[in-house]
């Protein structure tokens, strides 16, 4: 059952239903977002939202799980190069300036005089995923 379904059944705004559930369970509720199975149209609609960013994650903190760090490359190759969902400049804003702002990382995420210059250089035509060549690392410190 979705938050929207619960809100409708209880005659509440979805945000109120969400917060009520979380508070009723002493903030121990685990909410999930069904990322897969919704199709490209729904995913594209979410991606073009001006408040949706790409890349801020704690994936590296979960070392017992597979860290599948392909989303930024997939985003650029599939959504930007192949489907032209938005301009390359808009994509980079979602991948750098927006996450830096959300994370309060001052002087990061943009190329401005005096800021840190975090730059990635790539060939857009050669971006792709190497699923047929997985690499297993055993170099975790400690």
Automatic annotation (TrEMBL):
Residues 70-124 form the Amidohydrolase domain. InterPro entries: Amidohydro_3, Metal_Hydrolase. Gene3D superfamilies: Metal-dependent hydrolases. This is N-acyl-D-glutamate deacylase. It comes from Geodia barretti (Barrett's horny sponge).
């Amino acid at each position: 059952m979705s938050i929207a379904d619960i809100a409708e059944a209880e005659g509440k705004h979805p945000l109120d239903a969400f917060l009520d559930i979380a508070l009723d369970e002493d903030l121990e509720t685990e909410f999930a977002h069904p990322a897969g199975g919704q199709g490209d149209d729904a995913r594209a609609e979410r991606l073009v939202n001006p408040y949706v960013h790409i890349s801020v994650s704690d994936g590296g903190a979960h070392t017992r799980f597979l860290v599948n760090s392909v989303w930024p490359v997939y985003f650029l190759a599939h959504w930007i190069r192949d489907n032209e969902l938005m301009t390359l400049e808009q994509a980079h804003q979602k991948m750098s300036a927006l996450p830096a702002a959300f994370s309060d990382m001052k002087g990061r995420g943009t190329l401005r005089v005096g800021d840190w210059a975090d730059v990635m250089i790539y060939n857009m035509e050669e971006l792709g995923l190497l699923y047929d060549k997985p690499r297993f690392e055993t170099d975790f410190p400690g």
